[in-house]
UniProtKB/TrEMBL annotation:
The gene is mutL. GO terms for cellular component: mismatch repair complex. This is DNA mismatch repair protein MutL. InterPro entries: DNA_mismatch_repair_MutL, DNA_mismatch_S5_2-like, HATPase_C_sf, MutL/Mlh/PMS, MutL/Mlh/Pms-like, MutL_C, MutL_C_dimsub, MutL_C_regsub. Residues 429-571 form the MutL C-terminal dimerisation domain. NCBIfam families: mutl (TIGR00585). GO terms for biological process: mismatch repair. Residues 217-335 form the DNA mismatch repair protein S5 domain. Belongs to the DNA mismatch repair MutL/HexB family.
Amino acid sequence: MTQDTDSQHSIIHQLPPEISNKIAAGEVIQRPSSVVKELLDNAVDAGADQLKIVIQNAGRTLIQVVDNGCGMGKEDLRLCFEQHATSKIQDVDDLFRVRTLGFRGEAMASIASVAQVTLKTKRPGDDIGYKYEIWGGEEKSFEPAAVDSGTSVAIRNLFYNVRARRQFLKTDATEFRHILKAVQQAALANPELGFKLVADTDTIYDLPKEQPMKERIAEMFGKSYKASLIEFEEQTSYLSVRGILADPKLTKRSRGEQFLFVNGRPFQHRYLTHVILKIYDRWTGEKEYPFYAIFLNVDPTQVDVNVHPAKEEVKFEDERSVIKLTKSVVKKALNEQFLVPEVPRHNQHSRQASPSSGFSSDFSFGGSSQKQSWKKEPMKFPSRINFDGSKSEKKDSDFSRQLYDFEEQPAASSQQDQDPAPERMRERGFWQLHDRYILTQTRSGLCMIDQHAAHKRIVYEKALSATEEAIPSTQQLLFAQNVEFSASEFSLLEELHPILQRMGFNVQLLSGNTAMVSGVPADIDVGDEQSVLKSMLYQYRELEGKVELDERKKLAIAFASKTAIPSGKKLTDVEMENMLDQLFACDEPYKDPLDKPTIEYIPLEDIESRFR
């Protein structure tokens, strides 16, 4: 068989550049924030000290980064969009001593293959600059232009030619939150640089050059941080560790304000993150996350930054030493601040009073009493469950049939004829097990109701119903409250504002990521509006990507999760009875909004079998 015949039957062929670049874009450019990160990396590497980021429609319509760095000449302008073209790597050894942020030469080629790119640039010493347009990898124009020194890159209509990728983008609030994270990382890693972020004509950040780190953190994450930050620094021959930790009192219910950097590069490390959060455990509660920004500096030959397509992960040569030293430094900084010496833990048998010392052996500066003192004030929940004296309207599927399955008996009075089930329930009684479950006997067994799940179902359906009413039920506050949000929280608040208004929140959006709350739904205790709003935004984010529901239903779930009566709350007989009345008036009484059961039934036979 000849060589020509072989080539005709070959099943392997070289991909054209337009396809290979789109494949590379799938790894490097996952969402708008990936573009922002790559452009910021290039601007920092170009020696800029002032960067401006302009975003429209959460990056779908426009992402623009303008810097005053070294710019490019005519020869480099086309070359920067070629795959594997870079100014930062000269030979193989450079891969093991990378000090710059961008270095692979894939980003600009990948971005240009899936967007409409306009780049303007000029070197400080040149008389004139250049403008270059490239759409979907195809050159549109190349011409001289009068532009300022530095580089301006505008990315329009990201994924316009890869519709499947565009459809996988999340809501504007979610995508913008990822963009914020990228800008926050760059601003924390480079406090000597100025950053300005503008989103849809609103200035989100305007951070000056040479800004003290504490001021920068307070401006980005909230003024309450400024007086509650702990700085630390430690250095060894192998590694230096410095950073800023937040007071444990400033924890949040969501992740997102934990930052790790190595040699100025942000990175993720699950185990190191776990170790740091574990140190905070003695002061924080479950699912409470503190702010921290930790900067590691190590010889570039001792860390591999080329192990992840998006440069999000790194590999240390001596990972054990890095983790051990970081843990020690963070622990020392917190213990020095809060005067918590290490005290050996006692086992259960040793927790007896010691006759020789005269003190109880469980007395400890680092024990539970110390931890409790740093916990936040307990959340307030409404103790009422519709005490208006009227019974909830029963459906055909009344719990007298569903739950009790009574045999028909002659009624003793007209009142019993109208509503026999509650009377029979009262005859059998209610019990509360561990302040979590409501128990009552049925004709053929035992019924258990999860009080938190049941009340979540009640509040959820009530909140959904409120969004459909022409005039929502709102209790006006005597004094309006100004609530400060982080930039990402405020962005989500803007998106959900119309639904919140229909649910009964009177919220006016102000400048500077601040909102004024003048009214709240009747189910919220006055004084708890800030906690409820912020918790709802957190819960809403947690639901994104986990459940396929519309915004209205997800927000109703978030509201119910925060305001429902919690497990562990003591209820009176009247409260338990009212809860069951309302539960069985719901459209779906047997499940909470996330399909977890509200009611479990144990037949009498199963109980009897345990005593045989």
